[in-house]
Amino acid sequence: MRNVLLVLAAITLTSCASSQHGPWVDDADRIANGVNEYPSEFVCDEKGVTFLDFAGHRYAADPLGLLGPLLNDRGEALVYGPSDRPLENLYSSGLTHTFGLPGEDPTVRELYVDLDGNQDYVYISVGGARLEQWPRADQGCPTNPDLAK
Asked: What pTM, to 2 d.p., does this model score?
């Protein structure tokens, strides 16, 4: 029985380690507390959005605009997409997420924040090849506004 449990635990850890949505780990390879990435269908009726909870806020990768307009506290539009911000203007959170299919080279994603403390966006470097800006989406889902942070 113990061997069966060990095998199941190994399969579970392997599938989690290769997940597109986490876990995020610190530089000592410990799972980061309070940092969760998950697809929108876990909390909304919408599919196609990915949420990231980080530093007390919810951020969203919403390439199709399914969440509707995202606005900051000043009423300015926040948009998901590629960012041309130089990494020198950002601060590494020290958190990374590695995923990939067996037999493929893994992709490493790194989480960055603004040097000036602005929390309108987090930035994710994907394999060092591209930088995505994820806007703050604290208002929850259009179909489930009770999930607002």
From this structure: 0.80
